[in-house]
Specification:
By secondary structure, the protein is mainly alpha-helical. The chain contains 16 helices and four strands. The strands form two sheets. A two-stranded antiparallel ribbon has the order 1-4. A two-stranded antiparallel sheet has the order 2-3.
């Protein structure tokens, strides 16, 4: 069963795909312009990420060229920089060797957005030293087309609350509630795969690491949790803390992790499972539910053990 996304597989495919679309364009021309970048790939998201990378590079170059002798924050200077940006945006002129790394990065980013949205959200929110700056975040969202709804709502909520800067952890807390309110399910990857396959054929299975997994059996799990085995658990007798409701004890990182690793990215299924487990009146009843509904988890994974520890805290 496919359960873990392979970044190596994503990278390999992205290299082949980027090479082919660049071959296709540069066979006729030496340079590419802005409007041509917007149609370089059949996948709009890839093109938008390329444009975003170009503008980020320009901003970085402007920052690096600043001198201690001039006031770059003066209103007139800021307006002049914006005017220059507007002019440059109409005169993008890029050789293949300079565009290729940006295209490769954009394909990888697009695939992760769809295949791995929870990690994608995490990196986007915490990439700036675990701080989210609203204006920068809104700028990021201008170039995002896929799985945008939860992040757009986060931006709107911060704006409504007049919050300009917030820690990544606090932003995660708000996003957690948004994901539940929206009953978020990642966008279907099939339309993207169809567009990608026009250039280089691919299936979803190619992006996953394949492992054969033993089935979860209630008796086996119960035995593993209650006997002293060679496996090491975080929950020890001397710091064991019982929890009354699993849902209320989950961190946003745990929700992302469990959804991706144990529920195939299906947040709705994860949420439903947690609700049903919280309704059970015993550990055995919870194990019976898991055996009946989720029988293909990897019992060797860290995510499995951490999830089982939460159930143990809830009922034992």
């Amino acid at each position: 069963m496919e359960d873990k996304i392979s970044q190596q597989a994503i990278s390999r495919y992205s290299q082949v795909y980027a090479h082919k679309i660049l071959d296709r364009f540069y066979a006729q021309k030496q340079f590419i312009g802005g409007q041509e970048i917007l149609t370089l790939s059949e996948v709009e998201q890839i093109n938008l990420f390329v444009i975003q990378s170009l503008f980020k590079t320009w901003k970085s170059e402007i920052q690096n060229s600043r001198s201690v002798y001039f006031d770059y924050e003066a209103q007139a200077v800021l307006e002049a920089q914006q005017n220059l940006m507007n002019v440059l945006s109409r005169h993008i002129h890029v050789r293949r060797e300079h565009l290729e790394p940006l295209v490769l990065q954009s394909v990888v980013k697009t695939l992760n957005d769809v295949l791995n949205p929870y990690d994608f959200f995490s990196k986007l929110i915490t990439s700036n030293n675990n701080e989210l700056h609203l204006q920068d975040f809104k700028e990021e969202l201008k170039y995002l087309k896929l799985n945008k709804a939860p992040l757009l709502r986060l931006s709107q909520m911060l704006e409504e609350k007049k919050i300009q800067t917030i820690s990544g952890n606090e932003a995660f807390g708000i996003l957690d509630k948004i994901l539940e309110d929206l009953n978020f399910t990642p966008e279907d990857i099939e339309p993207l795969l169809q567009l990608l396959s026009k250039v280089e054929p691919v299936t979803m299975e190619e992006f996953y690491e394949k492992k054969s997994k033993p089935q979860v059996k209630a008796a086996e799990v119960n035995k593993e949790l209650n006997q002293n085995t060679n496996k090491e658990f975080k929950t020890l007798a001397d710091d064991f803390q019982k929890i009354n409701v699993i849902r209320e004890s989950l961190t946003i990182n745990q929700k992302f992790m469990f959804t991706k690793a144990l529920f195939g990215g299906d947040f709705e299924q994860f949420s439903e499972t947690i609700n049903n487990l919280d309704k059970k009146n015993s550990f055995d009843a919870a194990m019976q539910y898991l055996e009946e509904h989720l029988s293909n988890w990897d019992q060797e994974s860290e995510e499995f053990h951490e999830f089982m520890e939460l159930i143990e805290k809830r009922f034992n």
